[in-house]
Amino acid sequence: MTKIQYLTLPLFASAALLGACTPQPSPNSYSRTETMRPQSVELGTLQNIRPVNIRPGETRLGMGTGAILGGIAGSQIGGGTAANVAGGVAGAVAGGALGSALQGSQNTPGLELTVQLDSGSTIAIVQPGGPNDFRVGDRVRVVGNGENTRVSR
Question: Is the pLDDT of residue 60 over 70?
Answer without folding.
Answer: no
